[in-house]
Design goal:
By secondary structure, the protein is mainly β. It has a single domain, classed as OB fold (Dihydrolipoamide Acetyltransferase, E2P) (Beta Barrel). The protein is built from no helices and six strands. The radius of gyration is 12 Å and the shape is globular. The N and C termini lie far apart (30 Å).
């Protein structure tokens, strides 16, 4: 599946944990503008540029693609983050 840009409201973030494959990762849960749940993984949150960091209850615009190793419908890989949307 090709990547796509989605606007997602962040609902929860896990605490960053070490990862052999990704250095450090977090899992982020949110809901897109169409009401569909999204699980974003891996998110190297503490390694993200300051201008792209986001908080809970904040809308973000991200480029995502369906995770091929996780068959849950809501699981997507994060490829890029736009600066947080101010609403």
């Amino acid at each position: 599946m090709a990547s796509q840009v989605e606007r997602i409201l962040i609902l929860a973030k896990t605490y960053p944990s070490p990862s052999a494959q990704h250095v450090e990762t977090s899992c982020v849960a949110g809901i897109n503008e169409h009401g569909t749940m999204r699980r974003l993984y891996p998110v190297p949150f503490r390694l993200i540029d300051e201008g792209q960091k986001f908080k809970k209850w904040q809308w973000i615009e991200v480029r995502v693609e369906k995770a091929n190793k996780d068959h849950r419908a809501e699981s997507h890989k994060l490829s890029s983050i736009q600066p947080p949307v101010v609403t």
